[in-house]
Specification:
Number of helices: 10
CATH architecture of the largest domain: 2-Layer Sandwich
Mean pLDDT: 95
Order of helices and strands: EEEHEHHHEEEHHHHHEEHEE
Strand content: 25-35%
CATH topology of the largest domain: Ribosomal Protein S5, domain 2
Number of strands: 11
CATH class of the largest domain: Alpha Beta
Low-confidence stretches: none
Structural class: alpha+beta
């Protein structure tokens, strides 16, 4: 069902944290969800889902895309009560590739475009952050590239840039999923000062290396002591997967978001790295597959 206010948007998947940059660094990846929306005045919601989550994502008013749309429409003072929504999902669910951020951002952006672009991307970022709880995944989904995000008195700020080198991401996707809530439960409330300093120094080196395109520092810069050591217990074989990637040419490897996907950064040897990561998972009785992704430069956009 198409109408004059039908819009289509495409939103990238994302990876966050990137080792030491816990809740602050994100990267947009060239794997995409597409969303088609027709706003309706009457209180009728129809949701079609193709691809990831077609048998598990709610197709009623609990749907995150619809809830995100409602937030924006309310802020804009619009009285649309329903919608026809079609989702084409390629981003794996609950794997650490930003599926929830993609749903939120696509819903906000589609609703915004449908009512005439009332809000700019900064306002969209703020709304998305309110829904998601933190900006590290929603920021790259909106702006593309590598994003550095902070919260300042409940306001989200972000800086987006492209690295000074042609960086590829080899993503090992295990067969099990892991909720962000479960992954956060294992994190400590407080961390030692030395661990905080460790991560601050690595984050600074990581951002500098990426901006300059000097990837020789990447392996050291991706080290982390704030979240990965605690989440390792939830992902069998994580360190073996990392080592397999590095031995086969990766510049470094990290947990993607809250996991369980693991990402290796490289400029070449993609197939060797990916196969080594899959083999390492298999030794721990975990089936997996790998994808080669690049950095998306645009973020969410109309199609």
């Amino acid at each position: 069902m198409l109408g004059v206010n039908t819009v289509r948007v495409r939103v990238p998947g994302t990876t966050a944290n990137c080792g030491p940059g816990f809740d602050s660094i994100g990267i947009a990846c060239d794997i995409y969800n597409e969303l088609e929306v027709t706003l309706l005045k009457k209180d009728t919601i129809t949701i079609e889902i193709v691809g990831e989550g077609k048998n598990s994502i709610p197709c009623d008013k609990r749907n995150v895309v619809w809830k995100s749309m409602q937030l924006l429409l309310k802020k804009a003072g619009q009285d649309y009560q329903g919608a026809h929504i079609k989702m084409l999902n390629n981003i794996p669910l609950a794997r650490g590739l930003g599926s929830s951020a993609a749903a939120i951002v696509s819903g906000l952006m589609a609703a915004n475009i449908a009512i005439g672009n009332v809000f700019d991307k900064q306002a969209i970022l703020q709304m998305a952050t309110e829904i998601e709880g933190h900006p590290d995944n929603v920021a790259p989904a909106i702006f593309g590239g590598i994003t550095l995000s902070i919260m300042k008195e409940k306001q989200a700020e972000t800086l987006s840039f492209m690295p000074g080198a042609d960086l590829k991401l080899v993503v090992a996707i295990p067969s099990f999923n892991l909720s962000t809530k479960a992954a956060r439960k294992v994190l400590p409330v407080n961390i030692p000062m030395k661990d905080a300093v460790f991560n601050i120094s690595r984050t600074a080196l990581l951002v500098g290396a990426l901006c300059k395109g000097d990837l020789s520092h990447l392996q050291s810069a991706l080290d982390d002591k704030i979240h990965q050591p605690y989440r390792e217990q939830l992902i069998p074989g994580m360190q073996d997967v990392f080592q397999g990637a590095i031995k086969n040419g990766a510049l470094g490897a990290v947990l993607s978001g809250a996991g369980p996907c693991l990402i290796a950064f490289t400029t070449d040897h993609v197939s060797e790295i990916g196969e080594a990561m899959v083999a390492a998972f298999k030794k721990h009785n975990i089936s997996s597959k790998y994808l080669e992704l690049k950095i998306d430069q645009q973020g969410v956009k109309t199609i």
